[in-house]
C-alpha cells in the first residue's frame, strides 16, 4: 500500500452520511464519467457506494483496479451499487489516463478540497483504499480492498455480516472437505488440459491430487516447475494414481497459455474464480506451493514443494509415514556426509583463491569450513562481511585448519569480482552449478547465510551467521559443545547482576534482566545480544553495561557501533528484518 501525503487521522464517522453533503461542494452537485458526462449526486440515493481512493502512480492501485472493475461490471446489472473514484493523482493528464480505464464515477480532479476532506474523514493513510457505504450512508467496511481481493464478487454487499457468513461457510467446507467441494463451483465442474479439453472433476475423485499454485513470471516457480514435471512423469510411468491441477496466479493470459502449454497436467481455466477462493482457503503464503489432496478428498499436506525439490518422485504418496521414512534416510546421509560429498560434483572438484588459482577440494578435507552464501547487491551481506572478516582472522590466528568459502548470488562476474576482492578466503567460481545444489541441500532461503562444516565433513551448524553476530570468533568451532560452554559463561556473568533495576532513561517502569537474542540498546544505541535490562510493555532495552555503569563486571556484549542492516536477511531481491 502506498502512503498518501497530507492524510490526517481523525475518527471515522460511521454515518449515516448524506451523499449530497459528502460528495458535493458549494460549487458542484455532480460527479463525472470518463466520457465527460455529468451525473447528479442525488441519483445515487438508495444505492450502496464504494469510495475508491487511488492513484495512477501507485503500483498496488494499478494492480487492484482491474479486480475492482471485474466485480463492478458483474454487479452493474443489479443497479444498486456504484463506485466513486477519489484521486490522489498529481496532475490532470495522469488522472485522465487512469480514469479512462474505470467504468464508474469520479469526483472531478479539480476539486482537490473535497478529495482532501474525504481522505481526512475516512482516515486514508495509504492507497488503494476502498470504503463501502450502505444504502443509508453508513460505513459497512473500510476494508473493501482486502474483502474484494479475498472474496471478489462473493463478498457482496461487502458487509461484516456477509464476511462472517462466508467465513462460517469456509469452516463448514473444511470440516466436510472433498475434492468436489474444493474444485467444483456452481458455474464450473471441470478442469482443462493443455490442449483445451475439459476434464470433469469427477474423473479425479479417488486419486491423490496436487494443487500447484504458481506464477509463470516468478523465478522460484520457474525453477521448480521442471523438477515437478520430472517427478510427475516418473509417477505416471509407474502407474501411480496421481494428478496435478495448476492454480495459476498469472495476470496475463498469454503468459498463462505459454507456461501451461509446457506442462503435462491439468489446470483451472485462466482467471477462474476458483483460483482466488483456493488461495484463501489454503491460506497461501509462498510460491511455489503444492497442496496434496488425498484419495479421500482430505488435505494430506499443505505444501510438498520442498520435498519434491529434495526427493523428487520418491516423496510420493506424501503421507506422514513417507516423510518419516525420508527423514530417516536424510539422517543417515547426514551421518555419512563428507566435505567432498557436498563440494564435488562431476568435474567441479575445486574452489578458487584470490588469484583465480584452483584449490582442489581434497586439500580442504580435515578443516573446519564455513560456507558463506552472500551477494554484493545485498545490504545485510555487506553489513555482515566486516564481522565475518574479523572473526576469520581471529580464528585463523589460533587454528589454520579453518577456511571460509564464498558462495555467490551475484548477478554478474563484475559484481562477484568486486565483492570477492574484499574477502580473505576462497570461493566457488561465479555461476558455478554447485551453488544451486548447496542452496537446496542446506535450505538457504535468504542471505547472508553461513553453514558450518566440521573437520569430519558433517554439518555442525546451520545458524553460524547468528552465532558470529552474537559471539564473534568465540563461537568457533560452532559445535553444540562450544555453545553450551558459551551459555555457561553468560549465565555465570549474569549471577552478579540484579534481577531488576530502575534507570533514569526509563523512569516509567522497572527494567527486568531478560534473555534477548538481538536488540538495540536504547541507551548507547549499540546492538546487543543475550542479556538485556528490558521493559516488555514499552519495548525498551538497555545493555547491562548501560544499566549498571557502576558495576565494573557488567562489561556488556556489544562493543561495536550497530549497523542498521545486520538484523536483515535478503530473499531474492527483498531484504527484511528477522
Kindly summarize this structure in a few lines.
It is built from 19 helices and 29 strands. With 578 residues, the chain is of the alpha+beta class.
Structural summary, described in words:
This protein is of the alpha+beta class and 578 residues long. It contains 19 helices and 29 strands. The strands form nine sheets. A five-stranded mixed sheet has the order 6-5-4-8-9, sandwiched between helices. A five-stranded mixed sheet has the order 14-13-12-15-16, sandwiched between helices. Residues 4-13, 550-565 and 572-578 have low confidence and may be disordered.
Helical content (DSSP H or I, runs of 4+): 25-40%
Q: Which class do the helix and strand fractions yield?
A: alpha+beta
Strand percentage lies at 15-25%
Shape: globular
Main β-sheet, spatial strand arrangement: 6-5-4-8-9
Average pLDDT metric? 89
Number of strands: 29
Distance between the ends: 21 Å
Uncertain stretches of 5 or more adjacent residues:
4-13, 550-565, 572-578
Count up the helices: 19
Radius of gyration, taken over Cα atoms and rounded to an integer in Å: 30 Å
Largest sheet: 5 strands, mixed
Amino acid at each position: 500500500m502506498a502512503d498518501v501525503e497530507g492524510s490526517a487521522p481523525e475518527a471515522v464517522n460511521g454515518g449515516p452520511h448524506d451523499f449530497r453533503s459528502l460528495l458535493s461542494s458549494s460549487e458542484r452537485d455532480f460527479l463525472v464519467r470518463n466520457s465527460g458526462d455529468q451525473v447528479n449526486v442525488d441519483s445515487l440515493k438508495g444505492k450502496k457506494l464504494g469510495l475508491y481512493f487511488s492513484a495512477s502512480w501507485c503500483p498496488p492501485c494499478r494492480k487492484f483496479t482491474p479486480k475492482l472493475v471485474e466485480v463492478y461490471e458483474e454487479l452493474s446489472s443489479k443497479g444498486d451499487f456504484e463506485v466513486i473514484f477519489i484521486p490522489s493523482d498529481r496532475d490532470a493528464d495522469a488522472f485522465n489516463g487512469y480514469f479512462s480505464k474505470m467504468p464508474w464515477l469520479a469526483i472531478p480532479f479539480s476539486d482537490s478540497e473535497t478529495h482532501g476532506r474525504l481522505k481526512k474523514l475516512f482516515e486514508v493513510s495509504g492507497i488503494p483504499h476502498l470504503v463501502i457505504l450502505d444504502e443509508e450512508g453508513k460505513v459497512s467496511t473500510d476494508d473493501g480492498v482486502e474483502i474484494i481481493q479475498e472474496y471478489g464478487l462473493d463478498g457482496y454487499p461487502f458487509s461484516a455480516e456477509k464476511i462472517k457468513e462466508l467465513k462460517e461457510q469456509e469452516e463448514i467446507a473444511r470440516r466436510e472437505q472433498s475434492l468436489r467441494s474444493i474444485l467444483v463451483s456452481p458455474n464450473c465442474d471441470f478442469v482443462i488440459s493443455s490442449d483445451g479439453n475439459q476434464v470433469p472433476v469427477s474423473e479425479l475423485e479417488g486419486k491423490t491430487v496436487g494443487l500447484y499454485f504458481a506464477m509463470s513470471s516468478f523465478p522460484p516457480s520457474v525453477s521448480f516447475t521442471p523438477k515437478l514435471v520430472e517427478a510427475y512423469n516418473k509417477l505416471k510411468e509407474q502407474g501411480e494414481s496421481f494428478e496435478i491441477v495448476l492454480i495459476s496466479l498469472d495476470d496475463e493470459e498469454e503468459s498463462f497459455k505459454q507456461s501451461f502449454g509446457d506442462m503435462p497436467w491439468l489446470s483451472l481455466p485462466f482467471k477462474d474464480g476458483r483460483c482466488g477462493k483456493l488461495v484463501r482457503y489454503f491460506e497461501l503464503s509462498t510460491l511455489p506451493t503444492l497442496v496434496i489432496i488425498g484419495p479421500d478428498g482430505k488435505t494430506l499436506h499443505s505444501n510438498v514443494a520442498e520435498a519434491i525439490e529434495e526427493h523428487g518422485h520418491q516423496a510420493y504418496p506424501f503421507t506422514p509415514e513417507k516423510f518419516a521414512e525420508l527423514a530417516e534416510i536424510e539422517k543417515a546421509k547426514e551421518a555419512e556426509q563428507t566435505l567432498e560429498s557436498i563440494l564435488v560434483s562431476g568435474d567441479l572438484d575445486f574452489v578458487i583463491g584470490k588469484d583465480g588459482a584452483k584449490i582442489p577440494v581434497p586439500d580442504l578435507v580435515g578443516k573446519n569450513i564455513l560456507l558463506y552464501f552472500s551477494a554484493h547487491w545485498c545490504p545485510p551481506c555487506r553489513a555482515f562481511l566486516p564481522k565475518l572478516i574479523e572473526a576469520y582472522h581471529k580464528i585463523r590466528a589460533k587454528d589454520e585448519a579453518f577456511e571460509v568459502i564464498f558462495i555467490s548470488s551475484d548477478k554478474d562476474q563484475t559484481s562477484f569480482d568486486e565483492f570477492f576482492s574484499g574477502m580473505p578466503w576462497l570461493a566457488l567460481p561465479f555461476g558455478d552449478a554447485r551453488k544451486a545444489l548447496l542452496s537446496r541441500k542446506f535450505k538457504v532461503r535468504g542471505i547472508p547465510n553461513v553453514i558450518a562444516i566440521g573437520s569430519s565433513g558433517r554439518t555442525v551448524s546451520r545458524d553460524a551467521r547468528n552465532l558470529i553476530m552474537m559471539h564473534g570468533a568465540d563461537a568457533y568451532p560452532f559445535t553444540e559443545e562450544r555453545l553450551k560452554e558459551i551459555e555457561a559463561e553468560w549465565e555465570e556473568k549474569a549471577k552478579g547482576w540484579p534481577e531488576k533495576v530502575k534507570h533514569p532513561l526509563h523512569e516509567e517502569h522497572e527494567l527486568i534482566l531478560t534473555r534477548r537474542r538481538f536488540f538495540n540498546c536504547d541507551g548507547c544505541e549499540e546492538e546487543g545480544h543475550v542479556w538485556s535490562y528490558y521493559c516488555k510493555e514499552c519495548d525498551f532495552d538497555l545493555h547491562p553495561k548501560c544499566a549498571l555503569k557502576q558495576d565494573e563486571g557488567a562489561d556488556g556484549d556489544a562493543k561495536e557501533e550497530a549497523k542498521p542492516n545486520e538484523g536483515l536477511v535478503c530473499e531474492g531481491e527483498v531484504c527484511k528484518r528477522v
